[in-house]
Every structure is written in C-alpha cells, then in structure tokens.
C-alpha cells in the first residue's frame, strides 16, 4: 500500500504542463502516465490508448453509470474527461508511481482521495498574453477554443494555493529542474 503513490499535475491549458509531464516521465523510470478517458474527438495524430482512451458520449456516460471512474469532469462543455479505476491498478500493478495530467478541479479531487500518498503540483503560466501566444503557436485549437481555454485559465490560476506546490513556467528549463527536484523528494 505504501508505494501506491501518485503525482498530480494541474495547470491552465497552455502553461506547458504536458511538456513538463512528458519530460518527467522520460527522466524517471519509476513514473507512468495515467491515460484518461475522454469523450472529445482525437486532435492531430492522437491515438487511442496513447494520449487518451477515446469514447463517444453515450459510451462515456454508460461508464460513469457503471462506476468505472475514480473521478470525472465535464472539463469543457460537452467534453468529458475521467480517470479510470482500471488505469490505477494497471500502473500500481507494475510497482510504479502514477502521474496525472488533469484539470484543476479533478486535481483537487484526487488530492483529497489520495492524501499524503499524493504530491499535487500546479504549473502556472506567466501571463494571459503569454498563454494566448503559446496556444496560438501550438496551432491545434480554434480561436473560440483558445478564448475558452484562456477564460478557464484565469479562473484556474486562482486555485494554485490549494496544491502542495506551485511551479511557475516562465522558463522551461528552470521549471523542469524545479519539478524534478520536488518529484525526487517525494518518491525518495
Ligand atoms: P485536452 O483536451 O487539452 O487534452 O485536455 C483538456 C483538459 O482536461 C486538461 O486540463 C487536462 O488536464 C484535463 N484532463 C485530462 N484528463 C482528465 C481526467 O481524467 N480528469 C479530469 N478531471 N480532467 C482531465
């Protein structure tokens, strides 16, 4: 039970969270990424079982009713995202620490569930202008989607102090080094 640890990453979209999470997974073989289920369609060359388990909305709703999720949220209107119970067992079964990339509300829920077995990390983007620039340069979101994500980001930044630790990503190398240090302390 002791080694059933989890690391929770939450951040406004565009804060660089996915980049940092990806680098942590590469750097620490003890970590494995929890693949969420979602009802949104795949973007670009995303594939089932890699970035997400993709389901249509009726199937996702059925899985909610069947109690398949530890937590789930309608992160954007009409788009569900959730953590599958089966995913936890899959990763812990290998003796690894689970890494979550999850929205702020979901992150706070998971912290409540896992308590001291969880390290919750909030990645903060430097400013709304920088956030808009990053989302634009990513080139995967429509203008409406970008504005939706920025509005959400401003709201989500207000929750930073509910996390165990906050890393501001104004410089990627620094943010990565700081995150790695916190993870090393936590997994021992
Ligand atoms: P995206 O559509 O950009 O891949 O993700 C949108 C948001 O959903 C991100 O903030 C991401 O962290 C969040 N998310 C991904 N998986 C889950 C999950 O399993 N549960 C919750 N609550 N949020 C998730």
Automatic annotation (TrEMBL):
* Annotated localization: Cytoplasm
Q: What class of enzyme is it?
A: transferase
| Residues where ATP binds | 11-18
EC number assigned by the record: 2.7.4.8
Q: Which reaction does it catalyse?
A: GMP + ATP = GDP + ADP
Main localization of the protein described in the UniProt heading: cytoplasm
Q: Does the keyword Cytoplasm apply?
A: yes
Keywords recorded for this protein, A-Z: ATP-binding, Cytoplasm, Kinase, Nucleotide-binding, Transferase
One annotated GO molecular function: GMP kinase activity
Question: Which Pfam families does its entry note?
Answer: Guanylate_kin
Is Transmembrane helix among this UniProt entry's keywords?
no
GO cellular component annotations, sorted alphabetically?
cytosol
Which residue range or ranges hold the Guanylate kinase-like domain? 4-184
Query: What protein family does this chain belong to?
Result: Belongs to the guanylate kinase family.
Name the job this protein performs.
Essential for recycling GMP and indirectly, cGMP.
Q: What is this protein's name?
A: Guanylate kinase
């Amino acid at each position: 039970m002791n080694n059933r640890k989890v690391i929770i990453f939450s951040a406004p979209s565009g804060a660089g969270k996915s980049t940092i999470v990806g680098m942590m997974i590469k750097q620490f073989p003890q970590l494995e990424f929890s693949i969420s289920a979602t009802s949104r369609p795949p973007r670009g060359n995303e594939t089932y079982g890699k970035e997400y388990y993709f389901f249509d909305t009726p199937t996702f709703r059925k899985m909610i009713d069947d109690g398949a999720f530890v937590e789930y949220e309608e992160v954007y209107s009409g788009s569900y995202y959730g953590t599958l119970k089966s995913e936890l067992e899959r990763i812990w079964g290998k003796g690894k620490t689970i890494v979550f990339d999850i929205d702020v509300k979901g992150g706070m829920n998971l912290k409540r569930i896992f308590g001291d077995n969880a390290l919750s990390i909030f990645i903060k983007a430097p400013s709304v202008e920088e956030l808009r620039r990053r989302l634009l340069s990513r080139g995967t979101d429509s203008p409406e989607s970008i504005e939706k994500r920025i509005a959400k980001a401003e709201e989500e930044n207000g929750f930073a102090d509910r996390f165990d630790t906050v890393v501001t990503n104004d410089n990627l190398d620094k943010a990565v080094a700081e995150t790695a240090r916190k993870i090393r302390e936590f997994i021992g």
